[in-house]
Amino acid sequence: ILNYDIMARFRRRTCIILLLFILFICSIMMALKTLRPDRAGFGDPFGLGLLPELQQRTVLLDSKQNSLNRVQGDTVTRVSNLHSIAVNTMKASMPPINKLEEELSSPNYNFHIFYYTWYGNPQFDGKYIHWNHPLLPHWDPKIANNYPKGRHNPPEDIGANFYPELGSYSSKDPTVIEAHMKQMRSASTGVIVLSWYPPGMADENGEPTDDLVPVILDNAYKYNLKVTFHIEPYKDRDDRSMYHNVKYIIDKYGSHPAFYRHKTSTGRSLPMFYVYDSYVTIPEIWANLLTVSGSQSIRNTPYDALFIALLVEERHKHDIHRSGFDGMYTYFATNGFSYGSSHHNWASLKAFCDSNNLMFIPSVGPGYIDTSIRPWNNHNTRNRVNGKYYETAFSAALLVRPEIISITSFNEWHEGTQIEKAVPKRTGQVVYLDYKPHKPNVYLELTQKWSEKYRKEQEQWLM
């Protein structure tokens, strides 16, 4: 009987240990899947307008230019407004700029960060803008009926899964702009890639923001940062309108000391323009603008520049080359979503660019979650894993030795790709995500860490 009891206890203990071991292995597998998803079909619903209409568009593109019927309101960001307390505290504690200059890390002009100025609140704009983002319905009515509809109601309820330390701020607030410049500089980034629409235009949820550009440039200059432009899609964008866009930007802002110019291998210093959703326009139209023989050619004129196209599908690399672009970037912060955003494809893309005299600019991000505006899009969420996801992306980018790394994003709150400071918040039935157990500035610190690592490794590449 004694031996039977001992054996029974031994078997129970063995079963418990085995069960715990299985749970441990499952946890490890889930974490690895979060960091490096094996596949996520390109047809998966995702933000930034990459919905099923992409398939329809690409068919139409073979015949003629498709008018842009969706605006990058999808790529929107959202932030909330606890602004009065946070900002007033900041005003009182903000030290002089020259003193800050001594305390902050030196800017890395090979680290480019996407920045959005489309937020508004009643204090500065007379109403909330973007923080009250609508819930976007699924394109399949049967699925859409299973999810809530309506808009967010700031300042407690905002269109984001995280909550900004500055609350539902206005992008026009001088104190917010200053705080953003300080944060970007503390992260050792060097170039702000400013989301831009032509004067009088905006995304479908926003207001025109071109008149804010001079303020951004002035504040960037205080922090020794540079500004380049992320030209967003708008209705009927083509070679002619883009020529006028570039001419306008260079004529109006090109003489500002914070205006970014990239020094090429030939010794020329040229402006740089990121072109979002470039694939919507057929290569023949782009070639009119971007090749020497094009009918609307900008090459070898005072408005010549480096034009960086968005690569989503693998075949886009050939279109980008034929179009006359100078390089490509991947934008999306979701590893495994598109061909371009999948880390394991970066080596082959870099090799293609090297062999065709193109720049390859991988885009890294801290994670992705947009269920506050696309409640049906859980499968594209990428957990931050306390910063490990972000570091994995940086590690993958450094492996291909890029000339420039872009960061998605400083403050695209709608899609949860922000590295701006976020704070814990619970209101009503909403519990916002946060950066705990780390501090609100953890992603700024991680960016600064990898900026320094990139500098050191780049010195080795050049030797």
From TrEMBL:
Source lineage: Eukaryota, Metazoa, Chordata, Craniata, Vertebrata
Which species is listed as the source?
Answer: Sclerurus mexicanus (tawny-throated leaftosser)
Membrane topology term = Single-pass type II membrane protein
- Out of the domains of life, which is the source? Eukaryota
**A cellular component term, taken from the record's GO annotations:** Golgi membrane
As for subcellular location, the record says: Golgi apparatus membrane
Give yes or no: UniProt keyword Transport.
no
Extract the InterPro entries matched here.
Answer: Glyco_Hydrolase_99
Q: What class of enzyme is it?
A: hydrolase
> What's this protein's name?
Glycoprotein endo-alpha-1,2-mannosidase
What is an example of a Pfam family matching this protein? Glyco_hydro_99
